[in-house]
């Protein structure tokens, strides 16, 4: 670069004068002199191209590429015939703003007239990059004032450009698929970053703007994308020549979507220091599969009375519908629809929209479909089944969906059968697993047979969707003859049918190797299950066919047998068959083929005899409630294997004996067994019964007038035992003594006819860890004191004791109750207690004595705790309570 040099001489006198002005002066007079003799000048540097509006001329010797390259300025001035030069720093807010101008630090000078005879610009390495010789640049410095002096340099004219990405090539125009260029088609919204190449139409210079982040903007009817970076380009006319798009903001090579040239684009103009907008036409392929998917969505919507859809539920806005009044590449963005990264439809959930009609042949276009939910068991209770679940769901999400029906309709903690005081006691102890009231839905909450849609059929074209993983249909009037048995479109009007008929013979359900979960629930017009599908699916793991009550019991039994003999019979893990008309189960020779079955639901059928699976089939959960079961068969003493069993429940049936299908000697302990609400009077095989290898056993509300002591004697590892509501009169000595009786923690004997208990059985040597005992609603006339010796006893209930005539029969107070330090909840209300002269234990925190009309008690020892709110007394104000006047307030 050629630079002009200025030779100058600075007289010593002027230098001395300046130094004196800046650095000397101690008196007030000197300060005043400085304030009046000096002023400031600040230089502002602009591009000469920007000076046209200012009427300025520039005489630079060279062309400066960018103003931001200049970091310092040296100015040469004349003052009273003397030459002065000074170097100052140049500043701007940032590099981009530098193009609009630079400003120097302020320079303090003596007041007077100056002439600028030259200036030099330096880069960050102090290399001179520009020299300017202004003509007749004179300025005056006013004492105490600031003079702003403009300078203009020859610099390349540049302007700001904002890039906007727009769609080009929608089906209204001709556009080829990206497949011809070696790239997969992708939706416009997938663009997160872009490199843009532009060409100057005059100089033919090509410039590439790299790694520009993109923000997708969607309006009601169209969409576009904005680049978040404003770019400086040299002034001139330009066109977009090519671009490369990426699916991430960093524009990493591995995330490249495509590299494309732009044959023609709109010309945009860049003017110095002005802002303009350029559009980048992103080519969309009219033949792209994802756009075909979106067109198929519209056909499905129309065929299912889409214009009248109104969503009901909690997984989407109430009353919403699909909307196709927008650009076609936005049609895939609908409530209940999920897309793959390449834009293909991956999930359709129209449960709750009120679809009406037959799913058309267009469903066959959606060959990347993973989830199809045309209705589900939870529609009437919120519709949350697939909420927040993506098509690439985790194993945890898959299991949650698979077990959702069980959690909502079946599961119940057997310990919920304990009395309220025992439940409260357990929940107050952090060492016990809390008892949380189940959210099990009752029949009265959901009326089975109610429909939420009117889907009457599904096209056979669904057989093209071989990547399906979850297929649900529920609350629908569909019939088996319309369950994927034929193409359904009008042959003269449907392009889908015309295309699919040529390949129909090649379709097979055997190709659905990813379909693991299927539900056909509450389809009240079904008279048989669609075995053309169920018997052929090769990898089914969960099948819910509950609540199809129009299917006759013998037909459903045949369906079950056919399924076992089908391709997934030995792979099914979860089978829901509840709320149907089954009268029997398959025979053992069939059931033993279901080698992977883990959970079986036969709730609310009409079954009388349950056949055995055998020891080799290890079920984890069995639900047999609400049937007419009077016999549970076994094979070699086993109904099934118990290696991993969590619960076995057979309540509300007609069993007369506790089945001898368990074994207390087993090394495997079942979580819970429930035989409540049957007609049980004893144990199958009597004293030869092998006991039950479970922790929690519920035998409540049967007819066990004598305690089944064999269960304990055989070593059943019980911790919770519920025997309420049996009319029990007798617990014989030794009935509660066994090698595992020490494990007992909670015993519920309420609503029986007990008058006494065997003293030795309830001693701490036999029950060292007993925590809660419930004897309420019995016939005790003498207080059963033996359990009070147990050091861990915390909750004890003995309310409402009545004899055969219904008269109160318990008037005895347990003397020395205060010596039981662990007892913190004592319930003895609704009895006939009289004068109590015993010390009242301060360790008790909940003490119930209400409905003892003749009681007389002194609470002096515990009154301070009552006043402090640390003692809960449940009483009647009419009772004779002394020693604590606060109770009378």
TrEMBL record:
Q: Which UniProt keywords apply?
A: Leucine-rich repeat, Repeat, Signal
Signal as UniProt keyword: yes
Q: What Gene3D superfamilies does the annotation carry? A: Domain of unknown function DUF4458 (2.60.40.3540), Ribonuclease Inhibitor (3.80.10.10)
**Which segments cross the bilayer?**
none
Q: Which Pfam families match?
A: DUF4458 (PF14660), LRR_10 (PF18805)
Superkingdom to which the source organism belongs = Bacteria
UniProt keyword Repeat present:
yes
Q: Tell me where the signal peptide lies.
A: 1-24
User: Which Gene Ontology cellular-component terms appear in the entry?
Assistant: cytoplasm
- The UniProt record lists the DUF4458 domain at 39-146, 159-270
- Residue spans making up a coiled coil are none
Q: Which SUPFAM superfamilies match?
A: L domain-like, RNI-like
Q: Which InterPro entries match?
A: DUF4458, DUF4458_prot_LRR, Leu-rich_rpt, LRR_dom_sf, LRR_domain-containing, LRR_N_sf
Q: What is this protein called?
A: DUF4458 domain-containing protein
Q: Which organism is it from?
A: Bacteroides stercoris
